[in-house]
Specification:
Structural class: alpha+beta
Number of helices: 9
Number of strands: 5
Helix content: 55-70%
Strand content: 5-15%
Strand order of the largest sheet: 2-1-3-4-5
Distance between the termini: 65 Å
């Protein structure tokens, strides 16, 4: 979302207010940055003076509209207040995503766009809300590609999947070498048998830990590819968005590499164990 989309939202809200017969209103624009810096503009026209060369990324924007509606049914004007909250998903990931364990991401009720209306007449409030939702549908849709959607959709299966894969390596080795293992125990000395058991338990532990750790890393990568929404108002936003796009590609590549490494690890471990038996 860039400045022109915010301008379109402001125009749409003003059109609704004119349709409702509102001649006077107040508009305040709040711009919150990633490092606790806040800019306030007392009108949308003054918001045009926002420093687009700034290097501090925008974390969220809030548009606040205040107006009163005069009706024939009452002598008292009806006050209304509209608050529109827009959040940058990539900025949120930079601020909160590095502090909160990725396992809790699914528990966080993260909303990138919301509207709050303090109203007297429900019909008026619903008209404003409908205009906002129509604007939302017209925003550029930065959806995930199909491979990323599949990658994210399977994230709950990566840890048990890798654990199961490493367990499969061990099971395959035992099944393929059961005769040799039996023969080894029948001809070896007790201390050799004890050494073999210790080495086997050690390898089983390493396999379990390796499967767990690799699965957790891949699961973390899949979870962190999230909240693709962004707000681009200054140079800092452009840099942050580019960094996020690079990170997504890196997560996919690293996950593929970890999968290849785990496969290679299992093959090498089987070769070593097979050589020990021989």
């Amino acid at each position: 979302m860039e400045f022109q989309e915010l301008a379109q939202l402001n125009i749409k809200i003003l059109q609704v207010l004119r349709t409702l017969g509102v001649s006077r209103h107040g508009c305040t624009v709040w711009v919150f940055h990633s490092e606790s810096e806040t800019s306030r503009f007392s009108s949308f026209d003054k918001f045009h003076s926002y420093n687009q060369n700034g290097i501090n990324p925008v974390s969220r924007v809030m548009l606040e509209y205040n107006f009163v509606k005069h009706t024939q049914d009452t002598d008292h004007p009806q006050p209304y207040k509209i608050e529109i909250h827009l959040v940058s998903g990539v900025a949120w990931m930079k601020e909160v995503g590095q502090k909160v364990p990725y396992q809790l991401f699914d528990l966080i009720d993260f909303v990138t766009a919301a509207i709050e209306i303090t109203y007297v007449d429900f019909i008026i409030a619903n008209t404003v809300k409908a205009a906002f939702e129509e604007w939302l549908k017209g925003l550029p849709n930065d959806t995930h590609s199909k491979p990323i959607k599949i990658f994210k959709g399977l994230r709950k299966f990566y840890r048990p999947g890798f654990q199961l894969a490493f367990f499969g390596f061990i099971s395959y080795f035992i099944a393929e070498n059961s005769a040799q293992i039996f023969k080894y125990f029948s001809v070896s000395m007790p201390h050799q048998q004890a050494s073999f058991l210790i080495i086997s338990i050690f390898f089983m532990y390493i396999f379990h830990k390796a499967g767990t750790q690799i699965g957790m890393l891949v699961e973390e990568y899949a979870t962190k590819i999230n909240h693709a929404t962004y707000i681009k108002l200054n140079k800092g936003d452009e840099k942050l968005i580019q960094t996020d796009k690079i990170a997504r590609k890196r997560y996919l590549i690293n996950s593929l590499l970890y999968s290849i490494v785990s496969l290679g690890f299992g093959v090498v471990a089987n070769l070593i164990a097979d050589r020990i038996l021989k």
